[in-house]
Structures are given as structure tokens and as C-alpha cells.
Give the backbone structure.
Amino acid sequence: MASTGKNLIYRHRLPTRLWHWLNAVCLYVLFTSGLGIFNAHPRLYWGEYGANFDPSWFAPGRFPGWLTLPEHYDLAMSRHWHLFTAPIFAFSLLAYMLWSLFGGHFRRDLAIGRREFTIAHIWHDLKEHARLRLPKGEAATRYNLLQKIAYSKLLFLFLPVLILTGLAMSPGMDAAWPWLTQMWGGRQSARSIHFIAAWATAIFFLVHIAMVMLAGPLNEVRSMITGWFIVPQEKAGKMMDPPDEEGEA
Amino acid sequence: MSIIMTRRSLVAGLGVSAAGLLAGCDRLAEHDAVREALFSAENFHEWAQRSLMDRNTLAREYRPDQISPFFRSNGTRNPNTESYKALWRGGFADWRLKVDGMVARPLSISLPQLMALPAREQITRHDCVEGWSAIGKWRGVPLAAILRQAGLSSNARYLVFHCADKYRGTVPYYESIDLVDALHPQTMLAYALNDAPLKISNGAPLRLRVERQLGYKHAKYLMRIEAVSDLANIYGGKGGYWEDRAGYDWYAGI
């Protein structure tokens, strides 16, 4: 990460910034339209088949209109939003994954070193997060351990699982690639896992927003737009420093 | 203090903008250009899926022990029209399947005649657009065999399936498929489900099976198959009851 002056660093490169915002819009549309689709049959099953007379493991009823796209029940429109956005989401994720793996982003910023991955280190990071004490100074110039785990899990687990379980529900894809549905244990299992992964992603989003709020929202959002990040400075004897950037913005 | 205020207002702002975004998306979708863009994804999915498989690639078939204990029905569960009730009371002896339109030899086939033709059996999974699935064993006549008998014109591009039911009592149900699916080995006119004649709720006396597509394509209560070159002049022009009424995709492979 390039450094100019004493505390301004170039933190996010252009592909990261572009993908981040495109992905944010996609996930928003996919999650809300997905809940709209779920409302057509708000019951989940395991296995290949599952309908009203079969035992369901989860039947929460319909989600309210303020969470669904469109606001009123309209399965066709929810599907149009969902199926229009899904390929954009999937191919942009694929491109970003390839760029991360081959462009050095993963190795430099996300990979967890052997020395980093110790019980003592994990425990330290957990304690610091529980006290809402976020890294300052030099430590704030890179992602910490919990951040790396959270981002990697989203990028290489939750999001790919969402795409593969989504495709597994399609009867056309099931004919073309039968292994895709079978690897989840059947179409209804794929639908259940799709639902779980969607909510796991939603929980990631909420924690992500909370951490951005704690870390200094203006600095964080600005760095994801322009790439430039002001490193919060260490001040002795304070639990939580007011982020320096608030006065400048 | 000022920071806390900033954060609080940011959180509030986030909540308001999330709700605003949804309303914004709804308003966006009212524009014709946006609707057209959203609806055009169907073409991408049709192209992608058909590129990934051969036109004769089979939908997965299951073992008898994987059959759903109960095969649920959906949409019209009983057409309940006077003419349908009369057909049912007569054990469908007076029922005829008409095959017409762009064919060399229009047909009028009775149920015993259909059952005398070489049959196919398949245990497949029925995937509803709503999300549920049911596995059942179907017995019927491959549509391709009927089309051969009728002598399909080389100008025909679609088959329209006219049904006996008027869903919610107003417009007749209908569906359509193109020749890729019409000539597919698993596409059949089914008269039996799980070794019993079709029940009224499942489409008696005859229904379509298009195994690589969603349930609403599998028209029930078949009365007539019409070969056409274009769907524009059939009912609402979108190729099916739900396509016309609610904007469902005509290609329902996803």
C-alpha cells in the first residue's frame, strides 16, 4: 500500500472499489427479491422433493413488504429482478475472484500467515473486537485476522454457495449439470442452503456496517470510493478515539 | 457527542435509504425501458442453458422409492365447467384431443386410442415456480409421436396447448413450447400418474410434461394442440396464461 504524507494511504485499488459497489447493489436486489420469491412458498425442506404435505424444517410465514422487492407480492417481478441481477452478480464475482487470486490481492491482503494464525493472536483479536477497540496506527494499514476471515468467507464461501445453490434449483440446469443439484443433496436441500447462505450474507452485511460505523464511517466510505484512507493514529490512554477524519470531511 | 449524533443519523439514514431504495426500485420497474431490460434476462438464461446442454439431454429420472408420498396439485384443481363435468361423468369417453393448425393431417384422438400407442414411463421431479417440488411417475405418449402422425409443417415453430380450464373462471388456460422441447424424448402427453389414471386435480384426462421447465408450462386438462409459426396472435401473445396475465417468463428453465 502506497503511503504519502504521514497518515494517508492508498488502501483499495480500483477493481476492489468497483466490485464492492456493484456487488453491494446486486446483493441488495438479490436479497430483497429473493425474499419476495421465498414468499411464494415460505416452507423449507431437505432432499429432492418437498411440498405442503411433506415435513418442512422451517416455515416462518411470509416476510413483510418492507423487506421484499417488489413491496407487494408479485412472484413474476421478484423473479425478473432476481434473474436479471444474478448473472451480473455471478460473473462480476468470478472476475473479482480471479483478479484477487492472480493479481496478488488475496496473497497480500487476505491470506492468513502461519505466524498470524495462532490461538494467542485469535484470542487477542477477539478480545479487542469485543471491547470495540479497533486497530490504530500501523496495524490499521492492513486487515486484521477477524477481518480477513470475514472477507474470505464471504468471497470464497457464502457468495459462491449462493450462486451454485441458486443454479441447482433450476430444472434446466439440473438437466444440463445434474451433479450440481446432487452435490447439495437435492433441489429442496439446495433451496434451504440458498436461504441459509442468503441470511449469513445479510448478517455479514449488518456486522460490516456496524464495523464501518465504529471505525469511522466517513473515512471508510471515502476510502472505498477514492481508494485513499486516513490511518487512525494511536493516542495513549483512550478507549476509543474519535476518528480524526470527522472534522475534515 | 457530535460523533455519536453523526453515527446515529447515519444509522437512521441507512434505514431510511434502505426503505427508500426498495420504493425506488419499484418505481424504476414502472418504466418500460427498465421492465424490458429486466424481462430480457429470460433470453440470456434460455441461451445459456441451451448452450450448456444438447437438445436431447434428459431431465434427471428417479428410482421408485424416491417418489413423493403425495403429489400436490396447483393452479386449477377442477375446471368445473359444464362441458368438463359432462366429459368427466362419461369417463372421458366423449373427450377428444384435437391436433390442428400447421399440420398436414389434423387429428382427433380418443383416450383409448392414445393409450394404445407406444407409451413411455418416467419418474421425474416437478419443480414449481413457487419453489416446491414433487416426484412422480408419469405414463404417456411422447409428443413427437403424435406430431409425426399429424405431419407437422416445416413452417411450424411452436405448439400451443389449449386447456379445458379457465383459471379463476375468466380466461382459458393455455401454454406453448417450441420445437426443441416439443421433440424432446421426455416431452409427453401423460394420462397416468403413479400407475393410476390422472386425477382431476392433476389434469385429467391428459396433461403435458416438459421436464426441463417449471410446472406452469405443464398444461393440464388438454383439449387441443395447435401448431403455429408465431405466438403473437394467440390470446395475449406472450405464449401462455401466466405469461399474459402476470409477466412470467415464457422460457421457464430457471
Notes: Strands of chain B lie at 97-101, 107-109, 120-127, 133-142, 158-167, 171-178, 188-193, 196-197, 207-209, 222-228.
